[in-house]
Amino acid sequence: MEAFRFRLMIALLSIIFLTLAALGFLIGQLFNNLYMDETVDRLQKEARMVASIVQESEEDLQSLSEEIGEQLDLRVTFITGDGEVVAESSDVEGGEMENHLSREEVQLAGSAEGATIRESETIGSSMLYYAHPVDEGHTNEGYVRLSIPIDAVQTATGQMWMIIAVGFLAALIVIVVLGYRVTQRLTRPIGQVTTMANELAKGNYQARTHDETNDELGQLTRSINTLAYNLQKTSSNYQRQQENLEVLIDNMGSGLLFIDGRGRITLANRMCDAIFQTDTSEWLEYLYYERIHDHSFVQFIQRVFLTEAHAHEALQFDESWSVKHYEAYGTPVINSKGQLHGVVVVLHDITGLKRLEQIRKDFVANVSHELKTPVTSLKGFAETLLSEPMENPDVQRQFLEIIWRESDRLQDLVRDLLELSRIETYNFQLDLQRINLSEIGAETERLLRKKAADKSIQFNVSSEKHTEMIGDATRIKQILINLLTNAIAYTPEGGEVALLIYEEEASIVCRVSDTGIGIEKQDLPRIFERFYRVDKARSRDLGGTGLGLAIVKHLLEAHDGTIEAESAPNIGTTFTIRLPKEWNG
Which stretches make up the Histidine kinase domain (predicted)? Predict the structure, then answer.
């Protein structure tokens, strides 16, 4: 904007300067001509007056010339009719001067054109000459010549030019100041509009300009403001829709990929990071087969590109310690010209469904197996007792004890199944009250101390600080009994089992640790599943039903508690339970 204002000022000043210069030159020439004409007119009048004085005066011509020259501040010369100089007001003697009859001013004496400017040979400077004839009736007929140094005329002309120059310079300064203010007034709206246009080009649609005038510039600024308002409104709507779409895409529960017609990935939502275990934003503008390393998934995308038809397929992605199952849906994007614009791929995580399906299958198989074993034993030993008479009371008693143990095991299994089913129902209620976990821990120790002592296991229960909370005492005792029973069962003779209860900022922590056989890392995520056993043969021999940890997990969830397991084979296992002090349900 400054450049435009500068160019406008330069153009205006150039025009004004040239106009003033031409006008000054014309005025100077006019004044110069007027001054010269006035000087010549003066010489004419004074020459006629001197001629008249000479005719009437009887005084010596030399004295008369000196007197008149001094009074008029002029050079006065008397010339005879034949051109001889008889008197001169300057210091030069007339006899020393050459004949003046051929001089131009003498030849044109008395006429208006008789004024002549030339270099004086006598004085040596430029002079303005004018000669006037003495009346013919005079006895000494001749000419009177007046002259004035041209330097005086030039000095006066120079002063005139100085005055003109100063006046024009002052006028130029005033014009520059006024012109700057006028151009600034005219260009300011243009500058504001330009600045606003630049802001609009940068995407700042909130920019506005202000000009209340009713001229064309005012109409322009109002039109630009209207345009900016419409752009802001359109941009705001578009941005809101874009943000909603981005939030929807990023937070959808499925992975979303968009691959353009050239095979380059142009969109990958946040769920893709979790699916592919990497930052998929770095995949953008890369070919899909350069970044996706699963061969079956690449083939699925290629099939959608080749067939240009909707497709879906179940895929499996192997992770470090597990397998993820996904349902892939691929849809081609066709533009208005019927050309393939790209492919949209959606990945639905069905790992949970697969896991639930597998758990259901395992549950049915495990229940069938767990029931089949004791039922088969009961049936077999009962048939043996019924079919063959037992004369040996010891063998008969041994069979009956086996039947009793299998019946007891079957009863435990049915009890745990009913207990787990009751806990999982929606109407399951806790008997909440203020309890002290230290007291429950001590009671649990009394119940299980004999079982630990039978295996020569060192059994320690301790507590720190305040351990009061809101909870169901019976259910929490059930949790501790299940965990401690497992710890004692899976700890060899001479081992250690410990229960530590202590307080944290907002929860009570129960830490159950043992020095038992431990659990492999790959088995830890599944230990809370129904009937899942790390060592199936040994667990069954120890009388476990495989439902204890599942019951513990559900009871903790009912208390808004959490449980964590840490274990190492042949070193031991530690379960950490955190129960909130206050009930938030």
Answer: 366-583
Beta bridge pairs of residue 340: 334
How many Cα atoms occupy the beta-carbon half-sphere of 351 within 13 Å? 13
For tokens 């949790």, the residue is 479
In the three-class reduction of DSSP (H, G, I as helix; E, B as strand; rest coil), residue 3 is classed as helix
CA distances from 511 to 400, 406, 422, 493, 514 (A): 41, 33, 27, 21, 10
218 contact partners, CB below 8 Å, separation of at least 6: 189, 211, 212
Pairwise CA distance, residues 487 & 499, whole Å: 10
294 in Cβ contact with 255 (< 8 Å): no
pLDDT tens digits for 379-409?
Answer: 666 766 666 666 667 766 776 777 776 676 6
Buried/exposed code over 309-318 (b: 16+ C-beta within 10 A; e: otherwise): eebeeebebe
**In this structure, what are the phi and psi dihedrals at residue 505, rounded to the nearest 5 degrees?**
-60, -50
- Say which residue the tokens 């008789």 belong to: 114
Distances (CA, A) of 95 to 99, 122, 554: 9, 12, 152
Nearest to 24 by CA among 166, 157, 162, 168: 168
Best CA proximity match to 497, nearest among 510, 485, 487, 483: 487
* Spatial strand order in the sheet of 340-349: 265-268, 255-260, 340-349, 323-334, 311-318
Only one residue has tokens 């895929």, namely 315
Q: Where are the alpha helices (DSSP H) in 331-392?
A: 351-387
Rounded Cα distance, 195 and 48, in Å: 77
Residues 530, 547 contacting (CB under 8 angstroms): yes
Give SS3 for 39: helix
Q: Give the confidence band of 138 by pLDDT, cuts at 50, 70, 90.
A: very low
d(CA 524, CA 522): 6
Q: How far is CA 519 from CA 127, 306, 578, in A?
A: 133, 49, 21
* In contact, 144 and 45? CB cutoff 8 Å: no
Summarize pLDDT for 85-104 with one digit per residue, the tens: 777 777 665 556 777 777 87
Residue with tokens 């120790």: 445
Rg (CA), the chain: 62
Residue 110, SS3? coil
Contact 516, 491 (CB under 8 A): yes
Map tokens 């209207």 to a residue: 226
Per DSSP, what are the bridge partners of residue 577? Answer: 510, 563
